[in-house]
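[worker-b] picked up task from shared queue
[worker-b] task type: protein-ligand structure
[worker-b] ligand name resolved to zinc ion; SMILES cross-checked against name lookup, match
[worker-b] sequence length check passed
[worker-b] input payload:
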Amino acid sequence: MKPELILSDLIKIDSTNPPGNEKAVALYLKKLFEEAGIVGEIIEPEEGRGSFISRIGSGPKKLLFVSHADVVPVGEGWDFEPFSGEIKNGVIYGRGALDCKDLMAAQVSAALQLIAEKIPLQGELIIAVTADEEKGGRLGAGYLADNHPDMLAADYAVNEGADQPIMVNGKMIYFLQVGEKGTAWCTLKAHGTAGHGSVPTLADNAVVKMARAVSRLHNYRAEIVLTPEVEKLLRSLAELCGIKIEKLDPNAVDALLEDLPLEKAFVESLRSMTRMTVSPNMIRGGTKTNIVPDYCEADIDIRILPGQDCDYVEKELRLIINKEIEIEFNEYRVPTFSSSEEPFYRLMEEVTLKLAGSDAVCLPVISAGSTDSKYLRNAGISAYGIGHMARNFDQQARTTVHGKNERTDVASLQLKTAFLKELAHRYLS
Ligand SMILES: [Zn+2]
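[worker-b] inference finished, payload out:
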């Protein structure tokens, strides 16, 4: 079955999380694989929250294709019906078209093509479509990793998570995601003394204390950390842009980022790959206009790199915020990485260049956000993210992920499918 028809069907299944309803996606896929003579399984830790797993071929080698079945809420302001799945003039419309039902459709279509063409595999290709990724994945990949690790066990995994390609001096740059930053989310708590708002000097205003702390956090300059992959990425991009670098000094990174003639959104994502980021995103304090508040708290989104943990974060925060403000960590995840030195990484490069043209370039990238790959890497599976698109893909669609008017193009979906089919065929033969 053509990937665009599968994608269109998948978009029509509303799997907005919350509540999820990923089981409907799982049932659709189960039927599709059954029609091809393959039995699939649905793992449902909670009513309606099903993940789908199917495997084709047999042998010692194991390759895992992962995608997630849920999508984020659509919000307002769409120019078309978000769950229509309409295909028109080479474009497929609807929520999930880029995140990441497109990847799911490509993985499923690649597997079904391998079956239909009776291509012998000397190993197993495992298709896992997980629930709950958009809410952290505890009911999907997290649940499978904890309760059914044998179902996911594989040498390598291919998942979402890389930036879409960019064009630099006529060359298409494809990214392979090899790592994800960790999180060290915390809540800051400021205490003061309440009083009447008409005599503020008698009281001690907790909101003002927090405002000072938040303002200092905003001006925080994080230490620059160059992981080997990011160093390679920056050097290669500089070279492709015609900028000569003898040695990439961490202190020279910001100047280089200013010089790279690339889109701002991409440059800022490069910046966040080179340092811990600290973003004060929620603040709560005060109860009434005429009461000086005695308490205020703020939630801080902190993303960390290898070598950084809660102790490091606390030490850094303490350098700039007052001792009387408490720091309480409430979500901590280590950064996860897979090697770009693995033969499988080179195979992904080779297959990409074969399909995208020999003038294309592949570069490793790390993600500032997180995907299900964190569960896979923590379970010992080397996981890589892709964002492959065709040469003339709809660049305007980039910003529609988690936004309005999400869509993708048929040519990109076909390239993704061809890439995955060839990758599975070559790895498992
Ligand atoms: Zn996603």
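[worker-b] attaching auto-annotations
[worker-b] Residues 180-333 form a domain with the Alpha-Beta Plaits fold (CATH 3.30.70.360).
[worker-b] releasing lock
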